[in-house]
Amino acid sequence: MKKRKTKRFASLTNARINPKGFHPSQIKFYVLLTPLAFIMLLPIVFIFSHAFKPLDELFAYPPKFLVSNPTLQNFIDLFARMGNSGVPVTRYLFNSILITAITVFMTIIVSTTAAFALSKKRFKLKNTLFMVNTVALMFVPIAVSIPRFLIIQNIGLMDTFLVHIVPGLAMPVGLFLLKQFMDQIPDSVIEAAQMDGANDVQIYWRIILPMIKPAIATIAILAFQASWNNADTSSMYISSESLKTFAFYLSTLTSTTSGNTVAGQGLQAASSLIMFLPNIIIFVFLQNQVMNTMSHSGIK
Amino acid sequence: MPRNKRLKIKSWAKKEGSAYGFLTMYALAFIIFIVLPVLAAFFLSFTSFDTLQFPTFNGIKNYIILLTQDEVFMQYILPNTIKFAVIVGPGGYLLSFGLAWVLAQLPKLSRTVFALILYSPSMTSGVAMSVVWMITFSGDQNGYLNNFLMNANLIAEPIQWLQSPQYLMTIMMIVTLWSSMGVGFLAMLAGILDINPEIYEAGYLDGVKNRLQEIIYITIPSMKPQMLFGAVMAIVGTFQAGAIGVMLSGSNPTPQYAGSLIVNHIEDYGFLRYEMGYAAAASVVLLLLVYVFSKIAIRLFTEKD
Asked: A141 CA to chain B: closest CA distance, Å?
């Protein structure tokens, strides 16, 4: 009996949650995960390999999964290309980069200020407002696309640059994660700053913001993904071709009616990679911060 | 007296004013683009509205038509939506939790690599992936799946995967499950890793016998808040994923309505037929569905104390 117990404790070191190193008991998990990860990865490997295929490989029969003679031709074609009504593809890309950068920056400002109030300030409606935001986590924007459309029409945002940015600024998940993360900053830190004569703006800017960097990184990723991958705004609210985004351009390439031509295949392949790459690069760089934030993500 | 009032406002502004100041920007965006659309959908759902004339009130007629006369809705849309939601929602959720648990059993480096791989599909947009899925499931012999199955002698003729009512739904569910390890998955992974190891040791001393018991009696109860966050994210993600059928098949409605969900029905009536009042009624039904499912999740995972 006693022996069994010690054995169990010994096995607890690496054969348990969050182990420090390798243990034979982990082999079964690797056996399970490796094929699964391989399958999950296939479409992504495909995006990479497809983008560098020359035309004859794009149309090869039988179809080939991996590229054998990689070429940059698809990208060269893409950047030399004019979209509908003479807008160069680089213009769509420029719009996307600018819109995404501004959206990420604005989302950070808007949600960190609100989270500061909800987490660290004392006022009557505090708990009610946070509860409203928690209910809004269940909000499905696509469900109210019609009233949203009417509102955007009525406040004059149709066909403006701002319509790409403003409607997404209130991100309930973002505020929720930020507020939960900020809650762990002890009030004593803020009280000490108040003693030194700091006002709220200074506390927010000099104390809170530097302490919540992981949470900021996380909402930056969420805002980035929402904005960079958004093709709907361009197709629903924008009529000037020069204000549309790269995601929209790609969606015109893939639509079965207009873009599915022979020349379109190479452009599609190259554009897909350009759409996908920034997502993964940003996540790889910030994943540590994201995991740090997520441990405070619970709804209590 | 007025002076007193002014003082009151002053002291309020000093105490609470700055909090509201910090909230202003978010509150404005929140009210205009979240609260107002929901209220407007609710209001419009009791009207007849073609976008040209001012909406006219027609009571609960839209709902009656939706539930009794719209054959497409009752026969295809609602069953499709529920089937899709019941399989993809809990399916994706269990998959996320299961994989998060397995990942938590590995040391940091391999855990990070696997987590990145599993998470990466969820950050790809529908747009970027549509190219991949269209080539994989392409209806001619050049499609990867057709080519593979024909080489393996499993089928003789290429199958029109995305245009066939009997396959479209299955493909939609597979594609959605493939990308379901999103924010909720990361939250649950972090939740599992955050549990104090001493709780496990105490549990084993108290008679927990195997890993399954450990999950049921220790892991899940210790991370209920993250389980709930993951559940809400799974529910929202599931109902949000509705556009995928239209994206894959390239048409709304999808072939014989096989892949049409409420979301597509709303767009069909709202933006193609301009029956905004009716579409709004469908929106309200969708919001209610999300709310009911979330409530169930909250009931399951809220700490009772």
From this structure: 8
